[in-house]
Write a structure and sequence with these properties.
Number of strands: 8
Strand content: 35-45%
Strand order of the largest sheet: 2-1-5-6-7-4-3-8
Helix content: 10-25%
CATH class of one domain: Mainly Beta
Radius of gyration: 19 Å
Structural class: alpha+beta
CATH superfamily of one domain: Baseplate protein-like domain - beta roll fold
CATH topology of one domain: Phage tail proteins - horseshoe like beta roll fold
Distance between the termini: 32 Å
Shape: globular
Length: about 160
């Protein structure tokens, strides 16, 4: 006889290395991750702010380092690391007040800054290493252009 097993999604969010408290986790309504392996990945986290004023608490602020972990019970993995770049208030006509926290992974720094540099008598690998170090990035292997999106919603 087969058993029907129901798996409940689990999410854990760390802000600046500290796990969000129960109050914040209870106010969370949705998490959306758009992971582009060779480009800028983004996240959106929506909180219900009816009882908990997320922004006023100061746990999340502009520039906060965010780490999002998703999975099921004993199988949780980090799916995103980035920084907070914005807060957007949402005031639906027939709903509760919400705030959307948005941000990107470290690659957004490459899109925003423009620098002119010249490299003489250097190998391509040395040029790439120098460019990455200038943005505090590290090299990771792979040449995939695959894009994946994960979303968890809470009701």
């Amino acid at each position: 006889m087969s058993e029907n097993k129901h798996l409940t999604p689990v999410w854990i969010i760390y802000a600046d290395g500290k796990r969000l408290d129960v109050e914040h986790e209870g106010a969370l309504r949705s998490i959306t991750i758009s992971d582009c392996l060779n480009g800028v990945s983004t996240f959106s986290i929506v909180f219900d702010t009816t009882e908990v004023k997320i922004v006023d608490k100061g746990v999340l602020s502009y520039g906060s380092e965010i780490s999002v972990h998703l999975g099921y019970k004993d199988d949780i993995e980090e799916v995103f690391t980035g920084e907070v770049l914005g807060f957007h208030g949402m005031f639906p006509e027939n709903g509760t007040e919400q705030v959307e926290v948005t941000g990107c992974n470290a690659l957004h720094k490459l899109e925003r800054r423009r620098r002119a540099r010249s490299f003489e008598k250097k190998k391509a690998s040395e040029v790439i290493k120098g460019l990455l170090e200038g943005y505090s990035l590290t090299e990771r292997g792979g040449n995939s252009r695959r894009k994946r999106t994960k979303q968890i919603m809470s009701t």
